[in-house]
Amino acid sequence: AIKEAKRRGFRVTTNSTFFNTDTPQTIVEVLNFLNDDLKVDEMMISPAYAYEKAPDQEHFLGVEQTRELFRKAFAGGNRRRWRLNHSPLFLDFLEGKADFPCTAWAIPNYSLFGWQRPCYLMSDGYVPTYRELVEETDWDKYGRGKDPRCANCMAHCGYEPTAVLATMGSLKESLRAVRESVPRSGV
Questions:
Q1: Tens of pLDDT along 33-48?
Q2: Which residues pair with 15 in a beta bridge?
Q3: What would the DSSP string read from start to end of 137-172?
């Protein structure tokens, strides 16, 4: 399907979630396949997070497991070679080179039930309007170290926005992001 979509001129972005059953080698194999064989335009990655609605609670990564897994998978220049659709600071975060708070409000989720708070991975209810979501949610009570449900979360939905805000707030990191976004071979 990806090859056919590409043949027809569509841009293809994948989103791969990795679990505690993955190894650095399986991550490398998956991302090499997507990048080199299927030639997807961009790839998103995220460590699996044990949100309460998930049917399988046994295969999620902890923070230190995530950092070790991605540090090893990114070794040898892989991170630079792959067409990852993430800011350099988010990738640093996955490796444990940087730490950030969650910015759950940056990627709101809307469904038939309304606006979900605080993020789509949690079940703290819905509000009918975006204004209510932003103004009436106690955002300070969420995130690692604040809510036990967030203890092992490193999902891109909450941490990539923080990394982007940190990038935009730093000339050095903004220049790094531009430098690292130069198209890579294999597209």
A1: 999 999 999 999 999 8
A2: 44
A3: S-GGG-STTT-GGGTT---HHHHHHHHHHHHHT-HH
φ and ψ at residue 93, rounded to 5 degrees: -60, -45
Q: Give the integer Cα–Cα distance in Å for 51 and 154.
A: 11
The answer to whether the CB of 141 falls within 8 A of the CB of 131 is no
C-alpha 18 chain-centroid distance = 11
Helix (H) or strand (E) run with residue 28 in it: helix 24-32
Q: What is the pTM of this model?
A: 0.85
The tokens describing 127, both together, are 């509000």
Sign of the dihedral defined by the CA atoms of residues 18, 24, 26, 30, in that order: positive
Rounding to the nearest 10 degrees, give the CA dihedral for residues 73, 74, 76, 79.
140
Extents of the domains making up the chain: 2-180
Residue 31 confidence class, pLDDT cut points 50, 70, 90: very high
Tokens linked to 77 = 């220049």
Amino acid at 150: C
Distance CA 94, CA 62 (A): 11
Which residue in the block uniquely carries the two structure tokens 């430098």?
A: 179
pLDDT per residue over 51-87, tens digit each? Answer: 667 666 677 788 899 999 999 999 998 999 999 999 9
